[in-house]
Predict the structure.
Amino acid sequence: MKNVAVLVGSLRAASINRRFAEALAKLAEGRLAFRFVEIGDLPIYNDDLWAEPPAAVTRLRQDIAAADAVLLVTPEYNRSYAPALSNAIHWATRPWGQNAWAGKPAAITGTTPGATGTAAGQNALRHLASSVGLDLMIFPEVYWTWKDTHFDGSTLTDAESAKFLSGWIDAFSGFIDRHTKVAA
């Protein structure tokens, strides 16, 4: 089973993006193992800190290195992605020549109560993610409109939604498998 490092850009305790990612993890059981990566304790990126890298940065880089793939789950802030994700991405690209993202298969998703899901935020994040060397699954896309009535905690209760998202997980799993075969 492939291990997927999951980075959730919303740090708040009641994050719907965290609940959405946890629901995806439950749907993925038996196909993909989601490992949630803590990013809330990362200091703001500062090149001076490489003299003695913070433990949170070392842990982040190890979590990414140990993963077969990456899932970035972003809320949408001002038509863009979460600053916590940007910070984590920047930390894992350094030090120079040791980019932890390079060549990793990845997908982007997210949710918001708005009608377009996180379409603008995901689009902006794609640019950054591809520029740091992540190999992005472009299709299918999931711009999820959050509805409390479809969830019980972090369990998806709507059968039609579960079927759709399960198909997306199958596509992501297949993308990771194809990437692994090409890299071998």
Remarks:
- The first strand starts at residue 2 and ends at 8.
- The helical segments are 16-28, 55-66, 83-92, 119-131, 159-183.
